[in-house]
Amino acid sequence: MSGQRVDAKVVMLGKEYVGKTSLVERYVHNRFLVGPYQNTIGAAFVAKPIHVGEKIVTLGIWDTAGSERYEAMSRIYYRGAKAAIVCYDLTDSSSFQRAKFWVKELQNCEEHCKIYLCGTKSDLVEDDRSMRKVDFHDVQDYADEIKAQLFETSSKSGHNVDELFQKVAEDYDQLYSFQQMTEEKGVDLCQKKNSTFYACCHH
Amino acid sequence: MSQKSERRGIHVDQSELLCKKGCGYYGNPAWQGFCSKCWREEYQRARQKQIQEDWALAERLQREEEAAYASSQGAQTQPTLAPFSKFEDKKTNVTTRKVTTVKKFFSPSSRAAPKKETQEAKAPSPSISRQSSVETDKVSRDFIDFLKNLQKPGRDIHKQCRVFLDTMANKKEVSAEEQSEYVQDFYQNVAEKLQVHFKGSSDRVERVMDQVEKYIMTRLYKSVFCPETTDDEKKDLAVQKRIRALHWVTLLMLCVPVNEDIPEVSDILVKAITDIIEMDSKRVPRDKLACITKCSKHIFNAIKITKKEPASADDFLPTLIYIVLKANPPRLQSNIQYITRFCNPSRLMTGEDGYYFTNLCCAVAFIEKLDAQSLNLSPEDFERYMSGQASPRRQDQDGYLSHVNNSPSLGQAYQNLEQLSGLGERQERVLEGARRLERDLIEWSDGVAREVQDILDKYPLEICPPASAIDSDNVENDRLPPPLQPQVFAG
Ligand SMILES: Nc1nc2c(ncn2[C@@H]2O[C@H](COP(=O)(O)OP(=O)(O)O)[C@@H](O)[C@H]2O)c(=O)[nH]1
Ligand SMILES: [Mg+2]
């Protein structure tokens, strides 16, 4: 039932309504808004095996509740994450400010977590250039500064969605083999340390 | 008198709530009326006995295991002999250490307590120890059966586990964080060895690790769950109280996307509540996690049936919060801490179980911090609901009653509540009667006193000196015989 083993935790972050859930849905079930429902009871957590070369890396993708009333709790979610996909809506500049907030949080609290910036709803700005409220080059500069990857995706058309998650899996795999080479350890280096993190949410 | 009449409402004698041992702490029915500390003291003996039984069993199993290996390896008895004798050495070591711990338990301070044990308190202890030792027996047997399939590494793991349990037995006094670190180090250690053996097949490593966790934690549970060295117990009570104070929170306030009016949904929610309550009864961290996962799956189902589409994270968290509020799961913080400290970390950090567990942590954090704003209420309303001056229930009484009809257990609970409040009223009436009786008694005794005084006033008692006394003039005193003297006999 819950037996699926997972290699890396990937957490979806971003303001409510930017399209986190849609992105996961598109990637995992290859659907947007409507479509035949797979045998899933929910889209909050998905384990997704991804081919990387000859290996398989299983990502555990954690969607988060975006509503502001639960925002204070979000930091409990990203503990121990190997990657964070920080989403912002290309048609909403305030959502990019929010994304910057998440980046700062991650930099402060979760230094081992790799950051992926993701501008969503690219189909909307393609149709009508005036809709774009977040400039690509500005974000690219910012991404370079924080050493993050940048993707612009559309869950509606599927544009760049697979590429985003594929990159996450490849980066993880590279780091993982690298660790194995240098430390000769098959398991996560951070695992033990992380186990005490949960304790922080209860004071 | 005035002090007494001030007592109001249902009065439960304070002494009934206190620990049976009279230490001043509150007792708990779950601990046979003792407080947790005295319970632990009282049952240390039973536990010690169980440990001894466990050891005996482990030794027996060990012998069986050796025999099994010997028979399976047939002719090559020679090479197995050497490690076997080494094992024997270790075993005698173990026995001597065991003796010293037994001695420690019979030191005067701990011997004094069980003597005073009351008959009723004594009764449950053998059954408890038997029950849990049956469980540990089974776990040990299953573990060994499982390891047999692994051949040589299985045997190494068994050895490693036994040595580890032995060292942990001497670490009962260390802090929970240190205990956690020992266990986590141990997991990592075993996992690394398995990783080498299985040449990196993480699935197989994980499967063995699950068994190791089960074996180790079944045995350690009692000494590391909610230990005295932490304030877990205090936090448990605080959360429990907090949840009780929030009994008035409705589905609407939390924006929970489930419709309890659908019979199927309300049934599923009852199952979710049962699952989360059941968590406390499990010993193995992974089994506790499984309860959370089961509860979560029910929640997802309830949402899916209500919304006719799969639930998202935005639907799930508020519903889980609602379920936690309704269930008020026993020892919630202790369970969360225990899982955090002793669960196999890879499961906790990345997998599906970990996701639901994290949501539970969030739900508890939300409940602790919850204020008017988080429920979209005005601060005034929030205050009134918290203080019990007003109840939002009245407004949606209809909805409330309708799901009572749908769910038998909720209906039962509602009935119980009615009966309880009926009992409360009756108790109040009895108390009122008692108070009246007291007043009557006081009046009566005052009345009697008044009458006596009246009579005394009317007929003052005059004591006239007697005309003559027998010995008024002791003329013949000197003729009386001398008083008897006690005679002393020597010898
Ligand atoms: N046109 C368009 N709409 C999108 C896209 N992704 C999400 N949306 C819409 O944005 C809204 C919010 O999406 P959702 O995934 O629920 O956001 P979340 O709150 O971040 O999980 C929904 O109405 C989606 O249909 C996209 O790529 N293109
Ligand atoms: Mg969402």
UniProtKB/TrEMBL annotation, chain A:
Q: Which UniProt keywords apply?
A: Autophagy, Cytoplasm, Cytoplasmic vesicle, Cytoskeleton, GTP-binding, Hydrolase, Lipoprotein, Magnesium, Membrane, Metal-binding, Nucleotide-binding, Phosphoprotein, Prenylation, Protein transport, Transport
Q: What is its main location?
A: cytoplasm
What Gene3D superfamilies does UniProt report for this protein, alphabetically?
P-loop containing nucleotide triphosphate hydrolases
Q: Where in the cell is it found?
A: Cytoplasm, Cytoskeleton, Spindle; Cytoplasm, Cytosol; Cytoplasm, Perinuclear region; Cytoplasmic vesicle, Autophagosome membrane
Output the Pfam families linked to this UniProt entry. Answer: Ras
Please write the reaction equations for the catalytic activity of this protein. GTP + H2O = GDP + phosphate + H(+)
Could you tell me the EC number(s) of this protein?
A: 3.6.5.2
- GO MF terms on file? G protein activity; GTP binding; metal ion binding
Cofactor(s) this protein cannot do without: Mg(2+)
User: Can you tell me where the transmembrane regions are?
Assistant: none
Q: Which GO terms describe its cellular component?
A: autophagosome membrane; cytoplasmic vesicle; cytosol; perinuclear region of cytoplasm; spindle
The protein's matches in InterPro entries, at most eight in alphabetical order, are given as:
P-loop_NTPase, Rab24, Small_GTP-bd, Small_GTPase
Q: How does it sit in the membrane?
A: Lipid-anchor
Give the record's GO biological process terms: autophagy; protein transport
The family this protein is said to belong to = Belongs to the small GTPase superfamily. Rab family.
According to its UniProt entry, what is the function of this protein?
Answer: The small GTPases Rab are key regulators of intracellular membrane trafficking, from the formation of transport vesicles to their fusion with membranes. Rabs cycle between an inactive GDP-bound form and an active GTP-bound form that is able to recruit to membranes different sets of downstream effectors directly responsible for vesicle formation, movement, tethering and fusion. RAB24 is an atypical RAB protein that presents low GTPase activity and thereby exists predominantly in the GTP-bound active state. RAB24 is required for the clearance of late autophagic vacuoles under basal conditions.
Q: Describe, as the record does, how this protein assembles with itself and its partners.
A: Interacts with ZFYVE20. Does not interact with the GDP dissociation inhibitors ARHGDIA and ARHGDIB.
The protein in question is named: Ras-related protein Rab-24
Which species is the source of this protein? Erpetoichthys calabaricus
Q: Write the gene name.
A: RAB24
TrEMBL record, chain B:
- GO CC, any one term: cytosol
> Which Pfam family, any one, appears in the UniProt record?
zf-A20
- State the residue spans of region: Disordered: 66-88, 108-134, 386-408, 467-491
> Membrane-spanning residues where?
none
Record carries keyword Zinc-finger: yes
A20-type domain ranges (all copies): 13-47
Q: Which UniProt keywords are present, listed alphabetically?
A: Metal-binding, Zinc, Zinc-finger
Top-level lineage group: Eukaryota
**Ranges of residues in domain VPS9:** 233-376
Q: Under the GO molecular function aspect, what terms does this record hold?
A: DNA binding; guanyl-nucleotide exchange factor activity; small GTPase binding; zinc ion binding
InterPro entries associated with the record: DUF5601 (IPR041545), VPS9 (IPR003123), Vps9-like (IPR045046), VPS9_dom_sf (IPR037191), Znf_A20 (IPR002653)
What GO biological process terms does the UniProt entry carry, in alphabetical order?
vesicle-mediated transport
**What is the name of this protein?**
RAB guanine nucleotide exchange factor (GEF) 1
User: What is the species of this protein?
Assistant: Erpetoichthys calabaricus
Q: What is the lineage of its organism?
A: Eukaryota, Metazoa, Chordata, Craniata, Vertebrata
